[in-house]
Design goal:
Elements lengths: L2 H29 L7 H23 L3 H7 L4 H10 L6 H8 L2
Helix pairs in contact: 1-2, 1-4, 2-3, 2-4
Keywords: Membrane, Transmembrane, Transmembrane helix
Length: 101
């Protein structure tokens, strides 16, 4: 790798690790059902996901896709945390009223 690629990798991966570390507090809050009505928890979960994606991008840019592929599995806790918070609740009452079922 060249010096420029190493520098870009360092910045993107460094940002990703920092965002992932700070955002993990939101994932933990969601798992332990703390801060139920607070929007900051959703923002922290989003920051966690952004950090994971930044690390994936950095490793793919550095031609280390075999490290980036398992990192994609780290997005699963963010989805589960949002499910626990009720962010992705399905609105069945409106669907039932429209379809008549």
């Amino acid at each position: 790798m060249s010096d420029v690629t190493d520098l870009i990798f360092a910045f993107v991966s460094g940002f990703g690790l920092l965002a992932l570390s700070v955002g993990a507090f939101g994932v933990l809050d969601a798992y332990h059902k703390r801060g139920l009505g607070e929007r900051r928890v959703d923002l922290l979960i989003g920051l966690y996901a952004l950090g994971v994606v930044a690390n994936i991008v950095a490793y793919v840019m550095a031609d280390r896709w075999y490290i980036a592929a398992p990192l994609a599995l780290m997005l699963w806790p963010a989805e589960r945390a949002l499910d626990k918070r009720g962010t992705f609740k399905r609105r069945t009452t409106k669907v039932d009223a429209i379809t008549g079922r």
